[in-house]
Structure formats: C-alpha cells, structure tokens
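Title: Prediction job returns without error message
Component: structure pipeline
Severity: low
Priority: P3
Assignee: unassigned

Description:
Job completed but the reporter wants confirmation the result is attached to the right record. Sequence as submitted:
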Amino acid sequence: VPGISDSVLSDRLRELTEAGLVARTVEEGPPVSVSYTLTGAGRELLPALEQIGRWAERHLTARGVRELGHT
C-alpha cells in the first residue's frame, strides 16, 4: 500500500485478522511467505466498501475533500 509504513500495515492486518475479516496464511520457507485473504465475513463487506468507494470518487478531489453539501 503506497504511503503506509510497514508497522502500520502490520497493525491494520492484525486488527482485520482479529476481527475475522481476513485470514493469515504462513508458508514456511525459505523464504517464509505470509499471505492474507478475505474471509466470508470480509467478502460480505465488499458491496458496502464498493459503495463507499463510489461515494469517495464523487466527493473527493485530487486536492482534498470538497466541502460536503456544497457540490
């Protein structure tokens, strides 16, 4: 993910795993490989996240957030 530190990414993935939204798989190496996949619960969120993404495309600009309600 561009612009995010490794520690922040690790923290967010851990939170999503603990919430049951993603599953973590470790494949013993060398080198050790870790992958993440959406669980059923995570997949159930996709329609809502897609709606939020469409909303963001309409209301966010390259320069930042437009004044909401003043389109």
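Comment from assignee: result matches the submitted record. The first strand starts at residue 22 and ends at 27.
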